[in-house]
Write the structure tokens for this entry.
Amino acid sequence: MNGEGGPLLSVRAEARQLVAPDYAVVDGQIEHTARDKVEAVRSVAGSLDRLTAGLAALGAVPFDEGAGRRPLTWSAYSSATREELYHDKETMRMERSGLVTATVSLRVTVRDLGTLDDLSGVLAAAPGLNVHGVTWHVDWDNPAWPRVRAAAINAAIGKARDYAAALGATLGQVEHIADAGLLGGDAGPFHTVRGVALRAAGGDQPGTPALTPVPQELIATIEARFRATDVSLPSA
């Protein structure tokens, strides 16, 4: 067929595996409205202090460059104030209400999943806290990754063998194994499907997170090229 032997067989294959998450990220915002900016900011600061004290009781530390993979970390990363407006039906314009709202956005990362129930209680007790989302994640070095990538390679070999058999040939050697897209495709190499778990609280605090771990699906997608043995095609 060519000077290098039999034909090249190019395939794409993937493998999937469900695993338990390594950690959860809780994103939320504390919000208070008052008659002036000073009072609104003071209320937000008080709620943040109460929340972080509750987190500290669970062993949480502020997130910084030295936190690493600590069991529980938190970060209050932005704050803002705004004047409250309302739509005046007579003037048909937005008018100041005389109230000011202060907010602070925060993120809590929990790796010790055994503390999820206690953490949920601390979050539910925080005044003015609205939880926007809970996401579940798998670390890049989770022990399942080598297994799912090996399974993707085995799937590629099986697919290439099917093609070779249809040509009346066998696989001779491996030419390339690559993450999807590196051999000319357009798909990403692998990713984690992140689960979201939220529920409305049954009573005290709306938006209380349901901190129930969601299994994560690891997906490894590869592209491979194999050299097959010579193929003798029948004449027309």
Notes: The first strand starts at residue 8 and ends at 19. Residues 23-137 form a domain with the Alpha-Beta Plaits fold (CATH 3.30.70.360). The helical segments are 37-57, 116-125, 144-166. Residues 39 and 81 are 11 Å apart (CA to CA).
